Amino acid sequence: MDNEEKKSHIINLMQFARKAGKMVSGTDACLRDLRKNNLKLIIIAEDTSPKTVKRITDARNVLENFVPIIRWGTQKELSIALGLPVSGIFGIKDGQFAAKLLEYYSN
Prior knowledge:
Strand content: 5-15%
Radius of gyration: 13 Å
Largest sheet: 4 strands, mixed
CATH class: Alpha Beta
């Protein structure tokens, strides 16, 4: 699978997750769902500030909620594709969406 095909699959799955109500965006929303053990995967845009990344990873480690985190895409690219305000943090709340996204990301 080439990079463009991989990118297309990941964005399509994220769009489906958003439309199905299985995705949250933004640091605060992700932290809230992380504390409630509702997240199965966290996607962090590559251009997200180190301070924001640290907030998410520290919360995950303190809660001992070892949700997988992937760094992928840019804030602008992801937000435009998903029709959302600019954000660098996205949380996937469904295990099947998360598994498929991880599969595409690792291939």
